[in-house]
Amino acid sequence: MPCQVLVAAAAAAAVCFLMSALGVTAGAHRLWSHRTYKATTPLRVFLALANSMAFQNDIYEWARDHRVHHKYSETDADPHNASRGFFFSHIGWLLVRKHPDVLEKGRKLELSDLKADPVVMFQRNYQVLLLCFLVPMLVPWYLWGESLTVGYFLPGLLRYTVVLNATWLVNSAAHMWGNRPYDQTINPRENRFVAFSAVGEGFHNYHHTFPFDYATSEFGHKLNLTTVFIDCMCYLGLAMDRKKVSKDTIRARAQRTGDGSNKIVLPEVLLKMKISAFRR
Ligand SMILES: [Zn+2]
Ligand SMILES: [Zn+2]
User: Fold this and answer.
1) What's the whole-model pTM score?
2) What PANTHER family does UniProt report for this protein, alphabetically (predicted)?
3) What's the 172 CA to ligand 2 centre distance in angstroms?
C-alpha cells in the first residue's frame, strides 16, 4: 500500500531527525560545549554516533566554534556573527573562510576537557560519514524493504537538510527575532518557533544569560525535547549532575536586566508589594 509505505518512510525520517538533532543539542551543545551535565560512557558513545548522523563537523570543532560564539558573541571573533545579517549567521559563515579573529581567539580557548575525552577524539579522527546517509537509507531497506531511492531522499537527504536548518536558525533567527526577558543588552532572543524546530534550543536569551543551565530554558520540558531526553537519561542512570539556575536568580536577573516581558516577574513583584503593604 503506497500510503503505508509513505508512513513508514516518514517514521524513519522522524526517528533519524530526532536522533541526529539530539546528537547536536544534548551532545555537542549541552554536554560537550557547556558541560551542563555529566554522561556515562555508553551515553557519550550514543551521542557521538547520533552527532555523526547529524554531520555538522565533528564534536571537537563544533564545541570550539560554539565556545568562541558565546565568548565573543556578535563580534568578528564570533564564527556566525549575527550582526552581519541573517544569511551570514544562518549559512553564509560556512561558505567563506573564517575571519582571522575567529581563528586567533579559537586557538586561545581552553579545550583540554575535549582533548581528554576519548569518545570526542575518536569521533574527530574517525568521523563516520556512513551514519549520515547510508544508515538512514539501508536500515529501512533492510527492515521493511523500503526502496533505496526513498531511503536516500527522505530519512537521508531531506532529514539532513531539515536538521541543518533547524540548527542554523538558532544562530540566525534566535539572534534576531523574539523578546529578551533576561538580558536586553545582548542580541540573543526567545524564539518559540526555533525552540520547536531545534528541539528546545530557541530559548536563546535565557541560554546566553545562563549558559551553564542544562535545560537552556526556565520552563522545563515545554517545547524542549532535549531536556526531556536528558531527564530520561538521568532517570536511567546514564546521566547525572545537571546544573540548573535557581528561580530566585532568574527572577532577580530578569528584573535587573530583562526587557520586562518575563510574565512571572510581574505577579511576584505585585505579591511582594501586597505583602509589604499588609505588614505596614
Ligand atoms: Zn550554547
Ligand atoms: Zn547564540
Assistant:
1) 0.91
2) ACYL-COA DESATURASE, STEAROYL-COA DESATURASE
3) 8
